[in-house]
């Protein structure tokens, strides 16, 4: 399409005029973005076709990653970088008087996810393609992604997100590959030629229409596919009010995680899950049949991964196809299914472990229910043989019990591999949460510590640091991120360290500008940028952070000689719309910010900023500017975390508990390059086993604690005296379930250590350097290589050239 700047410019101008029907002079930024995006998508289409063809001919085993979330963010710059044409394009545009940054800003984040789980899926897609592995994503094309957050008077307000309002240049609609997904109706059972036949009749059909997006690997010709399904009315509705049917149908792909406090919302969520699974598996089977005919060797050519329990109906759906359509026996079908499916657990939080009431499940998915029932019966029989008479254990482990279907149990029974997302998390699954299952299936359990794509989180988001690294150690680390270790050699190189300092400073200035534009707050770029960005949740303890800020403020007010290095505390966090407590914490952060930022008597030593609408594109500006990374979850609660890795890779130092992947970060950088505090997971879990600890004692014995806790409700924050009662109660009346007060003193101390450490600039930069140098392990390339080898048994597709 173009091979140099001149050709790029010519093609771009021609395309712009052709597609927009305007002259270049008349064109808007959006016209320019659309033109460029379409050009790039077409640019990759040859390789896209060839990748498919190559895999088909070589009969490569393929993996399909089923996920209810894909948090992609923006794709333009990312694709340009992976295609290695970012420079040609940005220079070509510059000659036309266009700044690539401005065009990039037109692109709305594809925010089809909530947080870590969805972003992990997006990082994995990038690594799969970049490692030439045949792996594809399957998800839902929600009309509205994660809500847009506004902060009004300190409160979170949610607005519907509209990423598709102007279309999406990266997708290709493939209506001819649609699939009809059946719901409701009933199953007729008959016998024909000695075989049981199951017919799902009177079903209401929903059409799943695929939208495919190319997933472009870095410096390779591999282009994989992310297939997102859109729900549309079927051409063959049964007798129904047509408008109502249309509305109900389209609602299936309307929102990510519809409110499920009522049955209607629960049904919708379950519908989404089956919709995703059935459409994905049937389209996989359709192309498989075309190539191989029979499905008897399916598991040797296909691997299906379920990201958390949302897509777990993949298990009974595959069984249904193998038994009802392929006419295999139960045992044959089970063998294939088990060997095809693998499962990742992402959390041990009880509220996230999905259970469906039978009264909802059975009528909506009658045939699938029969299969789940059969799986359960056979499983319980096996358990009976293993543990004769141990009813309690069997009841606890059953897939169906007390009129509910436990999705995690179905996943554990129906897949050959179960992995946690960090070493500690996997150990907790084995020793505690899933102990019974580990006893029965020890061979299924394994760990795959999460990772992040260094292409987005370093190369794209921190180009200056990337250049510095390349100048120092060459480019090999881009393909082998563990080679970042070579940076260790620069530990005593003061010129290098000084360059690191200057780059951090520039990145902080960029973020400071953004902060000022967005909030009006002016921050001091020579202060420590101390950042906590992630979903708002009690266990992540944004509360501990803000209470500590209140403590620092109290110290500054009490004692004018209190010596602290100036700090800017930055938060970004969305609270789930129905999560009352989390929303109160957002209000508290904003209330503290208001008070602290407007108090001239503290000489600007403290600033607090809440950045609204935290999302992937904003995150890309935040990580490069961080000095301190807050990873302060209650130990044992954060399965892994991935933000911790993004901060580390950009040279921030972690203040963290021994939780999730923080432990593995510490193991790699060494105790001297990280700030660890607080209870350990063992201690927390032991407390839980023995009914918790007594938060009131900590309140009475530590006057620093007493002071900040009292300030929540004693009029310290004028005009909002009643606002924080729920927080106050959680700490004292409900015994502080997340150990905020228990860890408070230890947190104050470690933050003093941070203060001291920062004052020694040289030392700090060396610590920062060590974090970058050791971050290669946390590239998702390492994670994906482990999945590919140890779970999926897939191999890279050799490089090839386009004809
Ligand atoms: C975990 O809370 C982890 C991500 C990705 C989250 C986080 O610690 O890094 O998954 N879990 O593995 C989750 O979203 C529904 O569960």
UniProtKB/TrEMBL annotation:
It is an enzyme of class 2 (transferase). SUPFAM superfamilies: UDP-Glycosyltransferase/glycogen phosphorylase. CDD domains: GT35_Glycogen_Phosphorylase. InterPro entries: Glycg_phsphrylas (IPR011833), Glyco_trans_35 (IPR000811), Pyridoxal_P_attach_site (IPR035090). PROSITE patterns: PHOSPHORYLASE (PS00102). Pfam families: Phosphorylase (PF00343). One of its GO terms (molecular function) is 1,4-alpha-oligoglucan phosphorylase activity. It catalyses: [(1->4)-alpha-D-glucosyl](n) + phosphate = [(1->4)-alpha-D-glucosyl](n-1) + alpha-D-glucose 1-phosphate. Its cofactor is pyridoxal 5'-phosphate. Its EC number is 2.4.1.1. Gene3D superfamilies: Glycogen Phosphorylase B. Keywords: Carbohydrate metabolism, Glycosyltransferase, Pyridoxal phosphate, Transferase. Belongs to the glycogen phosphorylase family. PANTHER family: GLYCOGEN PHOSPHORYLASE, GLYCOGEN PHOSPHORYLASE, LIVER FORM. Allosteric enzyme that catalyzes the rate-limiting step in glycogen catabolism, the phosphorolytic cleavage of glycogen to produce glucose-1-phosphate, and plays a central role in maintaining cellular and organismal glucose homeostasis. Phosphorylase is an important allosteric enzyme in carbohydrate metabolism. Enzymes from different sources differ in their regulatory mechanisms and in their natural substrates. However, all known phosphorylases share catalytic and structural properties. This is Alpha-1,4 glucan phosphorylase. It comes from Cytobacillus spartinae.
């Amino acid at each position: 399409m173009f091979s140099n700047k001149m050709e790029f410019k010519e093609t771009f101008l021609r395309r712009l005029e052709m597609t927009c029907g305007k002259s270049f002079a008349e064109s808007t930024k959006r016209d320019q973005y659309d033109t460029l995006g379409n050009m790039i998508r077409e640019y990759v289409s040859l390789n896209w076709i060839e990748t498919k063809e190559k895999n088909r001919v070589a009969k490569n085993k393929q993996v399909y990653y089923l996920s209810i979330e894909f948090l992609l963010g923006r794709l333009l710059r990312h694709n340009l970088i992976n295609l290695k044409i970012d420079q040609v394009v940005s220079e070509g545009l510059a000659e036309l008087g266009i700044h690539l940054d401005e065009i990039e800003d037109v692109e709305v984040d594809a925010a089809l996810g909530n947080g870590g789980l969805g972003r992990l899926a997006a990082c994995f897609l990038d690594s799969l393609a970049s490692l030439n592995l045949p792996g594809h994503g399957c998800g839902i094309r929600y009309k509205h992604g994660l809500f847009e957050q506004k902060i009004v008077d300190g409160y979170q307000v949610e607005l519907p997100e509209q990423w598709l309002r102007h279309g999406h240049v990266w997708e290709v609609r493939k209506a001819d590959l649609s699939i009809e997904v059946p719901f409701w109706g009933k199953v007729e059972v008959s016998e024909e030629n000695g075989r049981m036949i199951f017919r799902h009749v009177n079903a209401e059909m929903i059409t799943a229409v695929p939208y495919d997006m190319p997933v472009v690997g870095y410096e390779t010709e591999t282009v994989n596919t992310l297939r997102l399904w859109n729900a549309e009315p079927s051409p063959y509705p049964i007798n129904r009010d047509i408008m109502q049917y249309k509305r109900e149908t389209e609602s299936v792909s309307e929102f990510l995680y519809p409110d499920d406090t009522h049955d209607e919302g629960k049904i919708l969520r379950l519908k989404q899950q089956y919709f995703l699974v059935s459409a994905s598996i049937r389209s996989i089977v359709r192309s498989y049949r075309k190539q191989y005919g029979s499905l008897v060797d399916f598991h040797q050519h296909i691997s299906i991964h379920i990201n958390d329990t949302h897509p777990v109906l993949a298990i009974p759906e595959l069984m249904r196809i193998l038994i009802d359509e392929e006419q295999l026996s139960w045992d044959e079908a089970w063998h294939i299914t088990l060997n095809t499916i693998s499962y990742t657990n992402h959390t041990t939080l009880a509220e996230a472990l999905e259970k469906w009431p039978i009264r909802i499940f059975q009528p909506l998915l009658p045939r699938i229910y029969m299969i789940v029932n059969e799986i359960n019966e056979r499983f319980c029989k096996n358990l009976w043989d293993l543990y004769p008479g141990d009813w309690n254990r069997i009841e606890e482990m059953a897939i169906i019990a007390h009129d509910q279907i436990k999705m995690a149990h179905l996943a554990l029974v129906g897949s050959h591999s179960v992995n946690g997302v960090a070493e500690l998390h996997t150990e907790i699954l084995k020793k505690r949460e899933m102990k019974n299952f580990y006893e029965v299936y020890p061979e299924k359990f394994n760990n795959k510590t999460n990772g992040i794509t260094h292409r987005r989180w370093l190369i794209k988001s921190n180009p200056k640091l990337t250049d510095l690294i390349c100048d120092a150690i060459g480019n090999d680390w881009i393909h082998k991120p563990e080679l970042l270790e070579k940076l260790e050699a620069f530990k005593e190189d003061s010129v290098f360290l000084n360059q690191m300092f200057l780059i951090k400073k520039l990145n902080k200035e960029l973020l400071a500008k953004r902060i000022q534009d967005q909030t009006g707050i002016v921050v001091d770029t020579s202060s420590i940028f101390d950042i906590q960005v992630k979903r708002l949740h009690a266990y992540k303890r944004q509360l501990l952070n803000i209470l500590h800020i209140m403590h620092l403020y109290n110290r500054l007010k009490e004692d004018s000689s209190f010596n602290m290095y100036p700090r800017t505390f930055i938060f970004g966090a969305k609270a789930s719309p129905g999560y009352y407590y989390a929303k109160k914490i957002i209000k508290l952060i904003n209330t503290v910010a208001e008070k602290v930022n407007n108090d001239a008597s503290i000489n600007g030593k403290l600033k607090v900023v809440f950045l609204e609408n935290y999302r992937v594109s904003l995150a890309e500006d935040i990580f490069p500017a961080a000095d301190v990374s807050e990873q302060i979850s209650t130990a044992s609660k954060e399965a892994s975390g991935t933000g911790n890795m993004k901060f580390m890779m950009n040279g921030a130092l972690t203040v963290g508990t021994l939780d999730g992947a923080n432990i593995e970060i510490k193991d790699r950088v060494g105790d001297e390059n990280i700030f660890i505090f607080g209870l350990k997971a063992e201690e927390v879990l032991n407390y839980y086993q023995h009914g918790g600890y007594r938060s009131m004692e900590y309140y009475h014995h530590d006057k620093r604690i007493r002071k900040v806790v009292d300030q929540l409700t004693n009029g310290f924050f004028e005009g909002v005296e009643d606002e924080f009662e729920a927080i106050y109660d959680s700490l004292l009346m409900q015994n502080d379930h997340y150990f905020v007060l228990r860890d408070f003193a230890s947190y104050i101390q470690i933050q003093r250590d941070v203060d001291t450490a920062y004052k020694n600039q040289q030392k700090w930069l060396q610590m920062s350097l060590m974090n970058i140098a050791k971050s290669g392990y946390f590239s998702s390339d390492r994670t994906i290589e482990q999945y590919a080898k140890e779970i999926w048994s897939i191999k890279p597709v050799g490089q090839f050239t386009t004809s």
